[in-house]
Structure formats: structure tokens, C-alpha cells
Model the fold of this input.
Amino acid sequence: MNIINFTPVSAFLGGSLIGLAVVIFFVFNGRLIGISGIASNFLNSKDNRFDNFLFLLGLILGPIIYKVFTQQEINISISNSFILLAVAGLLVGVGTRIGGGCTSGHGISGMGRFSLRSIVATITFMIVGILTVWIKNLI
Done:
């Protein structure tokens, strides 16, 4: 275990902000937060709810605003392989559709409601994520 990167205070504050966002979104909209559902509703819904747009905009602007105020570099390394990104995106989209929601919807909103379906989904994607990292580190 790498203790150097153990940051309980920032993890607690970040988790608390996410929980607060879920509560605020539910109180003002009567809907649960799930990014794939919000994105799908924004792109496919006839009424294209303005709150969906604002939520997605906040996902983009949040890290930018954080960087401006903290002056910290945000290092992101995904992949330089277009084929790998396309396959990964396709698998995430199919998995989201099959699972009836995404990691944020199941992991945050569903787990908070003690939904059995969300508990099973969250355990499944956590195990698959751990195995993926483990296998990638073996290669």
C-alpha cells in the first residue's frame, strides 16, 4: 500500500461535496444523479432540459476552475491510441446500457438508496476495474 498518496481529508471533502450535489440535484429536480442518464437525456430528450446542460457544463468547468484557483497542474494520461479509446468508449456505452446506469448513478445514487441492483453493479465494476489494473500491471 502506498501511504504517501493517502489523503483522507481531501477524500472526505470531495465525497461530501459529491453527496451534497446529489441531494441538491434531487431536491430541486426530483431526479437522481447519473452522468450517463443526464447526458443521454440532454442529447436525446425532446425537451433538452436546461439543468442537464448545466450539470454537464459543470463537469467540464469544475476542473478548469479548480486549476485556476489552486494553480495546480492536472495531469491526465488516457491513451494515444484512437482504436483503444474507441473500443473502450463502445464497451462503456454498451455496459452502461446493459447495466441500466453508469458508475456514478449506481455507485452514488443507487448505493445511497441501498438498491440491490446498484450494489451488485458497483461490486461488479469495482472487481472488473481492480482486475483490469492488475492485468495491465502484469503486462
Helices lie at 8-29, 35-44, 50-70, 82-99, 103-112, 116-138. The CA atoms of residues 36 and 101 lie 7 Å apart.
